[in-house]
Amino acid sequence: MSTANHTKDKGPVLLGVIGDPIAHSKSPVMMAAAFGAAGIAGEYRRLHVKSDQLEETLRDIRGQGFLGINVTIPHKVAVMDYLDELDESAKKIGAVNTIVHANGKLKGYNTDGAGYVRSLREEAVSDLTGKTVMLLGAGGASRGIVYALLQERPKRVIIVNRTEDKARQLAGEYSAEIPVEGYSMEQARELLLGVDILINTTSVGMHPQTEDIPLPVDIIPEGIVVSDLIYNPLETKLLRESRLLRGCKVHGGLGMFVYQGAIAFEYWLGFRPDVQVMRQAVLDSLT
Ligand code: ATR
Fold first, then answer.
1. CA within 20 to 30 Å of 58's CA: 99, 113, 135, 171, which one?
2. From CA 41, how far away is CA 20, in angstroms rounded?
3. Which of 10, 50, 76, 92 is catalytic?
């Protein structure tokens, strides 16, 4: 991991998150906890930025000496126009969630997929090598996760989506070394038979529609790992039913949020933050 130009001893750091809306972002509370645990004097600002203010905001980020920012909806793609450099992750995923301001340049990264995979490895499956993984959904979140998963050498990645074309298109962006295939939701039943890990990347089941489920759990093989990117609720209906009715090991989305922030912190400050403290801060703010 590359390191930014600040260390613990260099005085207060200025960071922030841009998005629209931004009022409900948990990043400020999470980052404040990370700074506290690391003994850093830091300020992490919540910046409400509308699309037509993006260019001006990026100019301010440079001018006001921000060490970096996080980028959230709806700016993850548009912000790339205002950066000097893009990391491989951001190029391949086509979206940026973390910007590092170092040596007068703004460089974009994407830590969403890597954050998800680190969380999955820490909390559910320590080694993804040789595993068959199915993702539900073929949007931006799925794209980041496919990219990060492939670095872990799985045996096969299956993307299943309501709109089959989008699944095929996303799958088609990868070389054939590790098979990545796209299918329709209707084909999920048959394909699930060989799956080790099922990941929901769609918004189905998210608050307030918590009774929705992306597919019936009776087609999920018993005992596999089922993961959901959603963290509100902390346990979606998909996870609850997979755990109770299919004996699955389940993995919720909170860890992805925590680790995408932890990896951003590492890019900015050059060392690993205390993820347990970060997780607890988010949990406390949810209740
Ligand atoms: P994100 O960046 O969170 O991935 P997105 O790019 O809008 O958001 O993608 C949302 C994904 O969830 C898509 O794969 C979408 O399926 P379509 O491509 O068919 O639109 C999927 N999705 C959203 N709502 C859904 C629903 N009610 N049932 C099934 N899939 C759904």
1. 113
2. 27
3. 76
The reply to whether ipTM tops 0.90 is yes
Q: Which atom of ligand 1 is nearest to the CA of 202?
A: 12
> CA nearest 109: which of 92, 125, 127?
92
Question: Measuring CA to CA, how many Å separate 180 from each of 95, 131, 146, 240, 279?
Answer: 20, 13, 9, 28, 32
Q: What domains can you pick out in the chain, each with its CATH number?
A: 13-110+256-286 (3.40.50.10860), 113-252 (3.40.50.720)
pLDDT digit string (tens) for 31-65? 999 999 999 999 999 999 999 999 999 999 999 99
Residue to mutate, 71, 203, 209, ligand 1, most ligand atoms under 8 Å from C-beta: 203
pTM as predicted: 0.94
Gap between the terminal Cα atoms of the chain: 34
158-174 pLDDT per residue, tens: 999 999 999 999 999 98
Q: Are 74 and 106 in contact (CB under 8 A)?
A: no
Nearest CA to ligand 1 atom 6: 139
Which numbered atom of ligand 1 lies nearest the CA of 138?
Answer: 14
